[in-house]
Amino acid sequence: MGDNRRLTSSSFPCNMMNDTDRLVTMELVKVLLSLSFAEALRPWLQLRDLMRVVTGNSSVELQGPPQIIDDRDKKQRVVLEFRAITLEQEGVGSINDNVSYVVDFVTKVHGASSLPRISKTRTDALFIESYALPFHELLALVKERYLQLSPLVDSATDVGLIMDQHEGRIVKHIQIGPMEREQLQSMFLRWPRQKLPERFLFLALGYEQDGEGEFAPDCFREFLQTAVKWQIQQAETNVRYLSGEER
Question: Which residues contact 107 (CB under 8 A, 6 or more apart)?
Fold first, then answer.
């Protein structure tokens, strides 16, 4: 299992870690990054100011849908909103190697237009683990390992567990349960994915930090490394626990 040292909850600790190079048995199917800001992005503010001058109305506010940029070759989507940026990636090979790509991406965005103070940062990793079991047997296994059996639990034909762990300004989100290929494709993936197993354990792991702060590449990198370290630990632990290796 991975390193079990307690993760820090402080805001972007600038103390670089180098021990995230681990292997995880579960298959990574999607990574998401969401940045929320204390105020609107600079281009929106500049356009709002222009509209106020043109209309002669100092109370004009911009309204409109998010700007969506898709890159089908990379299986990547970027969503620009007034106070948020979201990066979705489905073509990621290594969760560790992807940290540098994400840091470089946000750094380039910041270079093109200085980002406002960040109020919330969240990264999610979606994993699957294939099982050679019929769905009802995988469902029964999840019930046995994670739930106290009762008439209600026994009668459930599907189960999805959602749990949050609050540690100061850090919130860790966990969603786990059995899933079939069609559900993953329709609910979570934007691009068709080849060779998905018919059924599997689904594990979504979100790592979120609240609190305002300026964007700093080194500190942002460490936040992502800390998140990835926890995500890998959780993926490894839950696969082992479900298989009966850990109790």
Answer: 217
